[in-house]
From TrEMBL:
Keywords: Oxidoreductase. Residues 17-154 form the Ferric reductase NAD binding domain. One of its GO terms (biological process) is superoxide anion generation. One of its GO terms (molecular function) is superoxide-generating NAD(P)H oxidase activity. This is Ferric reductase NAD binding domain-containing protein. It comes from the Eukaryota. GO terms for cellular component: NADPH oxidase complex. It comes from Mauremys mutica.
Length: 172
C-alpha cells in the first residue's frame, strides 16, 4: 500500500492566483469557508488580490450558515481600506417574493442578495474586462449544471486577453 498525501481541497489554490472566482452552489460553500477564514486572519501574505465570491442557494436560510463570516471579512477589508478585495454576490434561486437575510448585522449581505440565477456569460465578461491580460482561477463546488457552464465559459476566448483556469471540487 502506498499513500501519497495529504491533499488539501482544490479550492485552496484560489489563494495562488492574483484574481479568483469562487462559485458555490448550496452546501458547496463548505470548502470555501476555510479560504474565507484564512483571508480573515491575513490576506496580505497571499498572491490573491481580488476575490469574486458567488453563492447560489434555493432558500434564504442557507445564507445564514456563513453570514457572520462573510460580514466579518467584508468589514475587516473595509477597515483596511481594501473594499475592492472581495466581491460578494448571493443568489436566491427560488423565492415567493423578495426576501432579506434578517437581522441588522447582515445589512452588508442584504445589499448583495440577488433574486434568480447568475448570468454567467455577463459575469465572465465583466471579470475579463476588469482583469485584462490576467489569469483568473475559477473554482466551483456545486451542482453539475453550474460546473458545466463554468467549465465551458472558462475555455472560451474573450476580447480582453483574460485567461480563465477552471478547477472543480465535488462531494462524493
Amino acid at each position: 500500500l502506498y499513500i501519497d498525501g495529504p491533499f488539501g481541497s482544490p479550492s485552496e489554490e484560489s489563494l495562488n492566483y492574483e484574481v479568483s472566482l469562487c462559485v458555490a452552489g448550496g452546501i458547496g460553500v463548505t470548502p470555501f469557508a476555510s479560504i474565507l477564514n484564512t483571508l480573515l486572519d491575513d490576506w496580505q501574505c497571499y498572491k490573491l488580490r481580488r476575490l469574486y465570491f458567488i453563492w447560489v442557494c434555493r432558500e434564504i436560510q442557507s445564507f445564514r450558515w456563513f453570514a457572520d463570516l462573510l460580514c466579518m471579512l467584508h468589514n475587516k477589508l473595509w477597515q483596511e481600506n481594501r473594499p475592492d478585495y472581495i466581491n460578494i454576490q448571493l443568489y436566491l434561486s427560488q423565492t415567493d417574493g423578495i426576501q432579506k437575510i434578517i437581522d441588522e448585522k447582515y445589512q452588508v449581505l442584504n445589499s448583495r442578495l440577488l433574486i434568480g440565477r447568475p448570468r454567467w456569460k455577463l459575469l465572465f465578461d465583466e471579470i475579463a474586462k476588469c482583469n485584462r491580460q490576467k489569469t483568473v482561477g475559477v473554482f466551483c463546488c456545486g451542482p453539475n449544471e453550474i460546473s458545466k457552464v463554468l467549465h465551458k465559459l472558462s475555455n472560451s476566448s474573450n476580447s480582453y486577453g483574460t485567461r480563465f483556469e477552471y478547477n472543480k471540487e465535488s462531494f462524493s
